[in-house]
Amino acid sequence: MRKVLFNLHLYAALPAGAFIAVLGVTGSIMAFEPEIDRLLHWKLWHVEPRGRALSIAATGEAVSRAFPGERLYGYGVPNAPDLSRQVELQRGMVYVNPYTGDVLGVQKPGMDFLGYVHQLHLRLLIRDDADTGKMIVSWAGVAMLFLLLSGVYLWWPYKRVAIERRESSKRFWFDVHAVTGIFSFAFLLLLTVTGLAIGFERTTTPLLYKLTGSEPSRPPRAAITAPPGAQPITPDRAFEVARAALPGAVPFYVNVPEPGEPYFVRLRYAEDLTPGGRSQAIVDPYTGRVIWAQGSRSAPGGARLAIANRAIHTGDIFGIPGKAVASLASLMAVVQVLSGAMMWWRGRQARARAASNRRASRA
């Protein structure tokens, strides 16, 4: 049984190893994606607080003066006083000092380094109607789950918990593989299981709703009709309405609606450490009426489980410490792939030398 399982472990690792290594490297970076983005674009993101910030509408007016005639699509309003605001234009994301209205710079549309990392992790940069890249990543996760469980079974008789200097490099890499694997097992298992729930979400999300006996809450699709002579409310007012609809949540994004469209406001509670937030409100742009709102605290049980699963996978659930654990665990997956490959390569070399020696002795 052990020999069969060892061969299955090896034959699963050889084709899946490259994909697992890619997921490990990109996952370790994505754990700190917002922090890295702000570091790489420091001058765009960081400002010096100077008294009272401008209104969101005034921020939009400043951008319109800088880029006359261009349509505004949305506003990003970070909660930290030392961060800039963002205004979406067709030319890209405009970063604005919220105290002076000065344009700090423009990030052009398209993927930058972090965008490529993100898409490489999600779908290997493969974009097609069948979402082939995502399926490959998901099945690599299935292989990872098998490797983790079979690896513990194979480790158990040896129970290696130390890396020793050995004459045989293969034995050294065996120690590295065994020790890093067993100490990171629980974290890698958690990342793998939560990743599989995301990768196969078309199956797992309905299952979460079924397990909790809940149903998805879907926003209505009614068109927005402007009353005669009505003027649209400002994005600042939309923020206030959304904040009142979800007490305790802080809004951080609002779109600029076209005629017939509502305001779509995204919010987060203090415990929502994920950058995208998981709370939202839809507001009528003329009456200020809340059309639909759903907070991460009051969402159906299935939605709350899906939210928690994603936060666990990214490490956001515990803030910076959680991200550090997720990043380090992802790197341990890379160490597992490299050490396993070295074991296989050194073993192959040893077998080749032994075969050569046998041929020489017979000659």
Report on this structure.
The chain is of the alpha+beta class and 363 residues long. It has a domain at 2-34 and 114-212 and 317-350. Helix content is 55%, strand content 11%. It has 11 helices and 8 strands. It has helices at 2-30, 33-40, 42-45, 56-66, 113-123, 132-155, 169-199, 201-212, 235-245, 301-314, 319-362, and strands spanning 74-76, 85-89, 92-96, 103-107, 250-255, 263-268, 279-283, 290-294. Strands 4-3-2-1-5-6-7-8 form an 8-stranded antiparallel beta sheet. A hairpin with a 6-residue loop joins strand 7 and strand 8 (290-294). Helix 6 (132-155) packs across helix 7. The longest helix is centred in the last third of the chain and has 44 residues, at 319-362. The protein starts with a helix and ends with a helix. The model has no long low-confidence stretch (mean pLDDT 93).
Individual helix count: 11
Strand order of the largest sheet: 4-3-2-1-5-6-7-8
Low-confidence residue ranges: none
Which structural class should the secondary elements be placed in?
Answer: alpha+beta
Keywords, please?
363 residues; alpha+beta; eight-stranded antiparallel beta sheet
Short description, anyone?
The protein is an alpha+beta fold. The chain has eleven helices and eight strands.
Detail the topology: elements first, then pairings:
Layout: H1 2-30, H2 33-40, H3 42-45, H4 56-66, E1 74-76, E2 85-89, E3 92-96, E4 103-107, H5 113-123, H6 132-155, H7 169-199, H8 201-212, H9 235-245, E5 250-255, E6 263-268, E7 279-283, E8 290-294, H10 301-314, H11 319-362
Antiparallel strand pairs: 1-2, 1-5, 2-3, 3-4, 5-6, 6-7, 7-8
Helix pairs in contact: 1-5, 1-6, 1-11, 6-7, 7-8, 7-10, 7-11, 8-10
